[in-house]
Amino acid sequence: MNWKFIKYYQTVLFTLFLACSTDEIYEPIYMEEIPQELKIDALVGIKLESNFATDVINMNVKLDTEGEYFITVLDISNRIVSKEKVSGKLGDNLFRVYTSTLPKSSYRLELYRDQTKVGTTNINLR
């Protein structure tokens, strides 16, 4: 094999590796106790520790049934910026939301199960 072919082959493999990586902005958090700013009194809902964020913010999603849910991020003109499937368990589900990849603006986070809206909240990125 000549050097040009090896270089080309490595470039293609590296590009495929990057293209297949996930763009998840949600990461589950495991805590023994729910912080006061994330507690939800209702049976079902979604709550952020603050409506203002810079790079990372914690979020609680309280559910009344286990299953697959979608968290959708909509921009100020109601366009979907991000949509991610998460596995929800009964009760409180804590997530860490990485917002550094989003442009600074206002967004709406919506929680869906089987195309039914379960909860919504707003977030402002600085």
Which key terms come to mind for this protein?
elongated; 1 helix; Immunoglobulin-like; 9 strands; 4-stranded antiparallel beta sheet; 126 residues; mainly beta; single chain; 48% strand; 5-stranded mixed beta sheet
Q: Can you describe this structure?
A:
- This protein has 126 residues and is mostly beta strands.
- The protein has one domain (24-125): Immunoglobulin-like (Sandwich), CATH 2.60.40.
- It has one helix and nine strands, in the order αβββββββββ.
- A five-stranded mixed sheet has the order 3-9-8-5-6, with no helix packed on it. The protein has a four-stranded antiparallel sheet with strand order 1-7-4-2, with no helix packed on it.
- β8 (106-113) and β9 form a beta hairpin.
- It is elongated, with a radius of gyration of 18 Å.
- The mean pLDDT is 83.
